[in-house]
Specification:
A 5-stranded parallel beta sheet has the order 2-1-3-4-5, with helices on both faces. With about 220 residues, it is an alpha/beta fold. It has 10 helices and 5 strands; from the N terminus they run E-H-E-H-E-H-E-H-E-H-H-H-H-H-H. It has 2 domains: about 1-125, Response regulator (Rossmann fold, 3-Layer(aba) Sandwich); about 145-215, Winged helix-like DNA-binding domain superfamily/Winged helix DNA-binding domain (Arc Repressor Mutant, subunit A).
Length: about 220
């Protein structure tokens, strides 16, 4: 059973999610919190598998709470709950170690599926929504999405092989090793090796950071 902590400053949303998700046999709601600091404290006490974290809260925000949890806790992953208007914040949260995000108004089944994905080690980056967010951010000149327009691409990218770049591109879509293997017609073990190699060459922490790298520098392009 997957242990869940729900974090939102609005009691109605917080309690509503707890009630809906608590009906699922594969999930156990171990607690709730009202901001990022309380979430961090509850994680230390309750050791949940997944934290469903609202991104915009008074006091300690979801981004700050995510940073605290990912830096000082082990075994707990964070899945952000957000709205489309929080495009810039969601990328900050991902860079702080969140394993993905969902919009608050998504169906319960979608949230449960995302929880299962994150629990199994995957990322949740909904392609259609991520594309919209990138285009919105692009309008403000804070992020470019096309490779030929991406600014400041690190020199370390030049150390990647063509296959590693392709794997990196698929990571940006939030795909698992198995999904990447199926797309590229290679074995899952080969994908795992490519992921390890490109993470080392780019000097980043993990596959989540690799996915964000791919999106931020235009290696992954959303139509």
């Amino acid at each position: 059973m997957i242990k869940i902590l729900i974090v939102d400053d609005q009691p109605l949303i917080r309690d509503g999610l707890a009630t809906l998700l608590g009906l699922r046999a594969e999930l156990e709601i171990v607690g709730t919190a009202g901001d990022g600091q309380e979430a961090f404290e509850k994680v230390q006490e309750l050791h949940p598998d997944i934290v469903l974290m609202d991104i915009r809260m008074p006091g300690t925000s979801g981004v700050e709470g995510t940073s605290l949890i990912t830096k000082h806790s082990t075994g707990t992953k964070v899945l952000m709950l957000t709205t489309f208007k929080d495009s810039e914040l969601i990328f900050e949260a991902l860079e702080e170690g969140a394993s993905g995000y969902l919009l608050k108004d998504m169906p319960t089944d979608t949230i449960v599926k995302a929880i299962l994905t994150v629990h199994s080690g995957g990322l949740v980056l909904p392609p259609d929504i991520t594309g919209q967010m990138l285009r919105e951010i692009k309008k403000t000149k804070q992020l470019e999405t096309a490779p030929e327009r991406a600014e400041g691409i690190p020199q370390s990218v030049k150390e990647l092989t063509e296959r590693e770049i392709e794997v990196l591109r698929q990571l940006g879509y939030g795909l698992s090793n198995k999904e990447i293997a199926d797309i590229l017609f290679i074995t899952e073990g080969t994908v795992k090796n490519h992921v390890s190699n490109l993470i080392g060459k780019l000097g980043i922490r993990d596959r989540t950071q690799a996915a964000i790298f791919a999106v931020r520098y235009g290696i992954t392009v959303f139509e």
